[in-house]
UniProtKB/TrEMBL annotation:
It is a multi-pass membrane protein. This is Mechanosensitive ion channel protein MscS. Belongs to the MscS (TC 1.A.23) family. GO terms for cellular component: plasma membrane. Keywords: Cell membrane, Membrane, Transmembrane, Transmembrane helix. Residues 109-172 form the Mechanosensitive ion channel MscS domain. It is found in: Cell membrane. The chain crosses the membrane at residues 24-45, 66-84, 90-107. Residues 276-324 are annotated as: Disordered. The keyword Heme does not apply. Residues 184-266 form the Mechanosensitive ion channel MscS C-terminal domain.
Length: 324
């Protein structure tokens, strides 16, 4: 049995391995260097972001990871080129050509959310611990990740929203500014003095702890409703977080209600008057005489229309008989 061919193959493999060992050692050394460089770049990025005023922790984490991964990928490409001299980045790009297009279509939504997450972290329309409202969801921002943003609702639930939706749609940031204006409509009776009621409401708001004096609270007439004159009270608070909003509204409304009651100003219930009648009286249709359902009472009561018609017919019959 001839083993010469196999022996030649083994010798060739051993020779190629020995020839490639220097490249392997050099490639390993280069990769280790790139590993340390990647860690250094990550640390530098973290320090730069941290020195920024109001620097975002999520942005710092994202950019440091991206820098670390980018340097590692560069290190892998350089190492592969050293170990396998025939390999070039151009050959890798050509190999990934069609496959990259397919991957791009398959992960379109993921890439879209990823880019939107980066833009949200860079532009910072809201930050962690901000309270935002998006469509039917409202709560405190817990985390801004590369794919989605999670918020904790006021009733203790977590909502995960894709970043692309937050980036392309309107989002209300309740804590974007230090102050926030609250308002509420209060109805008083038509018989009450409007100017006095407004003065009493403003005094009540000024006495509540937490209501700012600048801008000052105010009370404005906004509607002449069916049963009430509606006055809108407005006041400002600081800070504008949800718990502060609820406590401030509770205290202000209680103070206004008590102050109006003490000053004899009415807080009427909605009233409605319903009038009933059978619409068979002789005066119906005459706007100057019809009763619109009010009780007839004592006195001259309009006759039913049927009785009037019958009397007219009888009179016409008698006139016809006399004429014949």
């Amino acid at each position: 049995m001839d083993f010469s061919i196999a022996w030649q193959k083994i010798n060739q493999i051993a020779h190629d391995t020995m020839a490639a060992l220097p490249n392997l050692f050099i490639g390993l050394l280069v990769f280790i260097i790139f590993l340390f460089v990647a860690k250094g770049v990550r640390a530098i990025v973290e320090r730069v972001i941290h020195r920024r005023e109001h620097g975002s922790e999520s942005l710092k984490l994202l950019l440091s990871r991206l820098a670390y991964v980018a340097v590692l990928i560069l290190g892998v490409l350089v190492t592969t080129t050293i170990v396998v001299p025939s390999f070039t980045p151009a050959s890798l790009i050509s190999a990934l050509g069609v496959g990259g297009i397919a991957i791009g279509f398959a992960f379109k939504d993921i890439f879209q959310n990823f880019l939107a997450g980066i833009l949200l972290l860079l532009t910072e329309p809201f930050k962690i611990n901000d309270q935002i409202k998006y469509k039917d969801f409202e709560g405190t921002v817990e985390a801004i990740q590369t794919r989605a943003t999670s918020i904790k609702t006021y009733d203790g639930r977590r909502v995960v929203i894709p970043n692309a939706e937050l980036f392309t749609n309107a989002v209300t940031v309740n804590t974007a500014y230090d102050k926030r204006r609250l308002q509420y409509d209060i109805g008083i009776g038509y018989g009450d003095d409007v100017a006095r009621a407004r003065k009493v409401m403003v005094e009540a708001m000024r006495e509540v702890e937490g209501v700012l004096t600048d801008p000052a609270p105010e009370a404005l007439v906004v509607d002449l409703a069916e049963s009430t004159v509606n006055i809108q009270v407005r006041w400002w608070i600081n800070p504008p977080r949800r718990t502060d909003v609820m406590h401030a509204q509770d205290a202000v409304l209680e103070a206004i209600r008590n102050k109006l009651t003490e000053n004899g100003i009415d807080l009427p219930f909605p009233t409605q008057q319903i009038l009933f009648h059978d619409q068979t009286e002789e005066t119906d249709g005459d706007r100057k005489r019809q009763r619109e359902g009010w009780p007839a009472g004592a006195g001259n009561v309009p006759k039913p229309r049927a009785e009037v018609v019958r009397a007219a017919q009888e009179q016409a019959g008698r006139a016809e008989y006399q004429g014949s």
